[in-house]
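User: Here's a protein and a ligand (6-O-phosphono-beta-D-fructofuranose). What would the complex look like?
Assistant: Let me lay out the input and then the predicted complex.
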Amino acid sequence: MNDIKTEESMGTIQDRVPSSNIKRIAVLTGGGDCPGLNAVIRAVTKDAINHGIEVFGIEDGFLGLVEDRIRPLNLDDVSNILTQGGTIIGSNNRADPQHFPVGKDDQGNTIFKDLTDVCVTHLKVRKIDALVVIGGDGTMSIAKKITDKGFNCIGIPKTIDNDLHGTDITFGFQTAVHIATEALDRVHSTAASHHRVMVVELMGRNAGWITLHAGVASGADIILIPEIEFDIDIIVEQCIKRSQKGKRFTIIAASEGAKPKGGDQIVDRIVENSPEAIRLGGIAKWLANEIEERTEIESRYVVLGHVQRGGTPTAGDRVLSTQFGHHAMELLKLGKTNRLVVMQGGVLGDVEITSAADKQRLIPANHPLIAAARSVYTCFGD
Ligand code: F6P
């Protein structure tokens, strides 16, 4: 990865002088949920209480901050949640305080206002000194606006998509890969029984990390990711070749954001007022139909969807979430704010919180895992 920094340039905690006045913090989970959120909330809350810092939970992400739904979190609240999926304080991937709907005008058009100041007021009224924001790029861009108002924030990188700039890995990703791999493995046997092409559509928005990792882990024959545009003729040729060689099936792992050369992604829906309005979906159905029509090989598709975001986190994600939560608290205890906790080159550290705002970390064309997959004859449709 080009953006890997050394431990020194990330600024490790050991070099820093303690200077904290942080007595009260609030925690917020923003954007789509993912496995490991509760593990982070637990780590932050326990560490804070352990050091005499009071903790508040903001309900339903930035929506709850605008609406002043903030409640104390104590040790009982976070007991026994390490392995639980979801988030005990709720999340929201539509509310953006900078562009918040406050009513309708005479023509019925929605009126939007910037309510960032209202958010900061709600925190200050409770004498909260810092906000721990757990989220992806959209959440970090809102956190940046709050830091611009002079309020302390620490970011913790979350998303199954693993597309957050500044960190090699986000928590939630490993669990999503595990679930996607299991789905691909299961589809394998039924595809073989029926001599079918099976296309499995995986999440990730514009980034193919889940698909690349799960595709390699399950030995998918074809991996389609948004970063490499595919040629449908090559996919069709590949399915026919496999069939002629006596292979009884073809497994295709397809990112929801995969697109044909010169073509567009398939949009499932537009979620109005959401900072990221486009929801992708439909590529697996399109591919299965196209392949069946052109090869006469029976084809089916599976859309794994939100299964990838649900349930208990893997051991790896539980560990990462605990490390991220602890590091966030170490920063606050040392008086460091406006940082994003990151993992770079296997080293836990932190960068400016702004590093992750409104940017996506996509798979570079020269990524070693793409080369490894190609070396075992995996086709990327190019
Ligand atoms: O960013 C996480 C993610 O699950 C994406 O992979 C997916 O495209 C999107 O969120 C789905 O959003 P929603 O939960 O609004 O359907």
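Summary: The pocket of 6-O-phosphono-beta-D-fructofuranose is lined by residues 32, 93, 159-161, 203-205, 256, 279-280, 309 (CB under 6 Å).
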